[in-house]
Design brief:
6-stranded mixed beta sheet, binds adenosine-5'-triphosphate, binds magnesium ion
Length: 393
């Protein structure tokens, strides 16, 4: 059995002078993730490679699953290690590897050798040819195919010999913590958890804000959002979730403003409050799950009108995606089943039959002006009474 993983990372390998910063961040995230498991793990990085050595009570499936939740990892390769000795021992090692990983295999293969230990006799090409021959002799059902092999056998000769061929895909992206933080507007829907995941994937730490309207929205609706935050946290790390009681702000808007403008005005107040917390936390942007034209509040005019209240950049990673594309990601990251639970959302409770689809900023501002004198205090109270929960994986 193997007990080492070679971690492949794409983009962060090409960051020039900052490279070690990214590698350190990746190693840190891996360490953090694996520290929750029963096994013992040692993470080493040397010469552009990160290795995870497993010992103790480690479980293969659990370890791979944990690594598949670390952004920055492109591939997870189970590696067999052998002592670096002579050419004969190397042949025996490779034969042992095939016997363990591909018993009775009818497959084509190619051998790729990297001779880092320059003391080892022969060129990389010569060593590869000799190993190919040894495999053919020992496994009559295997054939060489240098162009399109079923099995690409990677062999690295260093102070230890590393042999691997399987690459389990990782989530890609960049290690969390390498790109500042942002405030995710997290509702109970399908879109916003995916939006948060996509930004976290680029190395951004997430905070989140959820607006609810008790008693119009239930505790179960709130629990659902906490659950979603926990699911995103499996990738993004702990998320500080701000739970804002939005009822009185919504009721004031409902009592004072034209009903077809309710959603858009409510969205503007959400964004204002979200930005308040973002600034307080030092977040560098806001994140929403909006996508052009998906609903009335996401037409280009609506987006312009909502955006007008924000000074921080608003990141909308789903902006050009269709619903089915968003659903595919939510299935992949494990948020879909929770997102479709049928609990009420504060946006849908006070919604008009015919919301404006082409709001005009000046008109909306005029309607909002009527809220003056009462809304400031309601917003302040909403801010002051906000509950903060740390959602952990
Ligand atoms: P989602 O599937 O993310 O709920 P949606 O299709 O329901 O999105 P809207 O209700 O228009 O769309 O919301 C657009 C975006 O506004 C959401 O993606 C989310 O970022 C934010 N948002 C909506 N409702 C809330 C809420 N109750 N709390 C926090 N953010 C919200
Ligand atoms: Mg929604």
């Amino acid at each position: 059995m193997y007990h080492t993983f070679l971690i492949k990372y794409g983009e962060i390998g090409i960051k020039g002078k900052n490279r070690h910063v990214f590698e350190d961040a990746l190693a840190k995230q891996i360490r953090l993730k694996l520290s929750k498991l029963d096994g013992e793990y040692e993470i080493r990085h040397e010469r552009g490679r990160v290795y995870v050595e497993c010992s103790g009570e480690w479980d293969e499936g659990e370890t791979v699953d944990a690594l598949q939740h670390v952004f920055g990892i492109v591939g997870i390769c189970p590696v067999h290690t052998y002592p670096t000795e002579g050419p004969d021992e190397l042949k025996a090692a490779v034969v042992d590897y095939i016997a363990q990983e591909y018993p009775d295999s009818h497959a084509t293969f190619k051998v790729k050798v990297r001779r880092v230990d320059k003391e080892f006799p022969g060129t990389s090409m010569e060593i590869a040819a000799a190993l190919g021959e040894a495999i053919l002799q020992n496994f009559p059902n295997m054939k060489v195919d240098v162009h399109n092999p079923d099995i690409l056998l990677d062999i690295e000769i260093r102070d230890t010999v590393y042999v691997y061929s399987r690459i389990i895909p990782g989530p890609g992206g960049m290690p969390v913590g390498t790109n500042g933080s942002a405030m995710l507007c997290l509702s109970g829907g399908i879109d916003s958890p995916v939006a948060g995941w996509m930004i976290a994937k680029r190395g951004v730490v997430l905070d989140a804000v959820y607006f609810h309207a008790p008693p119009y929205t239930s505790d179960r609706a709130k629990e659902k959002v906490v659950d979603l935050a926990r699911q995103v946290a499996k990738y993004a790390g702990p998320i500080r979730l701000h739970i804002v009681n939005f009822t009185d702000v919504q009721l004031a808007i409902y009592d004072t403003c034209p009903h077809e403008e309710l959603t858009i005005i409510m969205r503007r107040y959400m964004m204002k409050i979200a930005e308040h917390f973002a600034v307080k936390n030092g977040n560098l942007g806001l994140i929403t799950g909006e996508s052009i034209g998906q609903v009335a509040s996401q037409t280009m005019q609506s987006l312009l009108t909502t955006n007008a209240v924000c000074t921080l950049p608003v990141y909308r990673p789903l902006i050009g995606m269709d619903k089915n594309e968003i659903v595919d990601i939510s299935l992949k990251i494990g948020t879909y089943e929770t997102s479709i639970l049928p609990y009420e959302d504060c946006c849908t409770i006070f919604v008009a039959k015919h919301p404006v689809t082409r709001p005009i900023l000046e008109v909306i501002e005029k309607s909002e002006a009527k809220l003056k004198g009462q809304i400031e205090e309601l917003v302040q109270t909403a801010i002051d009474t906000t509950e903060i929960i740390v959602a952990k994986p």
